[in-house]
Design goal:
The two termini are about 35 Å apart. The strands form three sheets. Strands 10-11-9-12-13-14 form a six-stranded mixed beta sheet, sandwiched between helices. The chain has a five-stranded mixed beta sheet with strand order 3-1-8-5-6. It has helices at about 55-60, 100-105, 115-125, 210-215, 265-270, 295-305, 330-340, 355-365, and strands at about 5-10, 45-50, 65, 85-90, 95-100, 140-145, 150-155, 185-195, 200-205, 235-240, 245-250, 280-285, 315-320, 345. With about 375 residues, it is α/β, with parallel strands linked by helices.
């Protein structure tokens, strides 16, 4: 199961309680207080792990709890501090904090639309409420973007240990019988969202041949079948170039009109395009699905722009796929007349035609020295 967005509840470990104790030894009848402090609660630390590729583990364990510190003991013995709980997450994980409803009551105009939707659903059971979590709601705050392998982020700090009665002795209080309890660890609700990190992203309608193309240019083996939405989650392939250079290419699930409004797979895959350096629009140039490739490109570009305007500024090129089918050649001529200044690479992924040309051009686009020549 592939999970790229999940809500979790996390709580740091509680600090140990301070101890109330007095020294009682032979020949020392009134030794005074010697209660030790409690140990510190364990932090919850997120650590990016390249071997982890999704958030499925949190689907089964959505509650993360840190270890508690030990209580203090007599003879000035401090409780042991708890070890931090290391939680592995994929590289490219964004962490959002969900603020409580009470934090928005004082400022109703800033309350999250998520809460408004819930209130509307209770008042009007038949009113349509959009499913899923909108991370752009004002009640949700981005607190971390983990993009490097081995990067760490303290999600919740553990509570401090309590003070033993040895800290409360004074000239006027020789037998203090008070100690402080351990502090509670930080606690909250969070959203983990995975955005795939890849050099290039294959964008196109369902059945445009993206999965077949990824299998031809890399060693990846994505599922390929003759029906729409075969790909249900992003697949990553590593493309090898001459000189031991390489690049990662993501096969993004098929995009349809209205995807920016979460139609079809919608936001389930659009978020993965944001980090790509280059966008490769894979078009069914033969129109085998009954669509026009010129209209397809316009729709795809518009959907990306509506979802995130920054996507319209990324370098991109067109891959004219299925050139082995009838009508593809005529459609390609019409396409080039419509987009005279746009680079188009004709290929047939099914027959491995044009793959070497595509890999060579992709190598140029992703090489730093050739970045100024990349098309915009």
């Amino acid at each position: 199961m592939f999970v790229d967005q999940i809500k979790v509840h996390a709580k740091g470990g509680e600090g140990g309680d301070g101890c109330v104790s007095f020294l009682r030894e032979k020949f020392i009848p009134k030794g005074g207080p010697n209660g030790g402090d409690g140990g510190r609660g364990g932090d919850i630390i997120l650590r990016t792990d390249p071997s982890t590729d999704n958030l499925a583990a949190f689907f089964y364990e959505p509650i993360i709890r840190g270890l508690d510190g030990e209580n203090g003991m007599g003879k000035n013995l401090y409780g042991r501090g708890a070890k931090p709980k290391i939680v592995k997450v994929p590289v490219g994980t964004l962490v959002y904090r969900i603020h409580s409803l009470e934090q928005h009551e004082a400022q109703p105009e800033r309350r999250s639309t998520m809460y408004y939707n819930l209130a509307r659903e209770e008042a009007e059971p038949e009113a349509p409420v959009k499913k899923g979590i909108n991370v752009h709601d004002p009640g949700i705050e981005l607190i971390a973007d983990l993009t490097e392998p081995g990067q760490e982020f303290v999600l919740c700090k553990g509570g401090d240990g309590g003070k033993g009665n040895v800290h409360f002795k004074s000239s006027t209080n020789r037998i203090p019988r008070e100690a402080t309890p351990g502090a509670l660890g930080e606690e909250g609700d969070f959203i983990f969202e995975l955005r795939t990190i890849a050099d290039a992203g294959l964008v196109g309608y369902p059945n445009a041949g993206k999965s077949t193309l990824l299998g031809r240019i890399s060693s990846a083996h994505p599922k390929v079948a003759a029906y729409p939405f075969t790909t249900l989650h992003p697949s990553i392939g590593v493309v090898e170039f001459p000189g031991y250079a390489r690049a990662t290419v993501a096969d993004i699930p098929g995009l349809i009109e209205g995807a920016h409004l979460n139609v079809g797979l919608g936001h389930e895959f659009l978020r993965h395009i944001v980090r790509c350096k280059v966008l490769l629009f894979v078009l069914d140039m033969a129109g085998s699905e009954g669509r026009n490739p010129i209209e397809d490109l316009g729709t795809l570009r518009e959907e990306l722009k509506l979802y995130d305007p920054s996507l319209a500024e990324k370098p991109w090129l067109v891959i004219a796929n299925k050139m082995d089918l009838p009508d593809a050649a005529e459609n390609l001529k019409a396409f080039k007349r419509r987009f005279r200044k746009r680079e188009v690479i004709p290929i047939s992924a099914a027959n491995s035609e044009g793959i070497d040309v595509l890999k060579s051009r992709l190598n140029e686009l992703l090489t730093p020295a050739s970045a100024p020549d990349a098309p915009h």
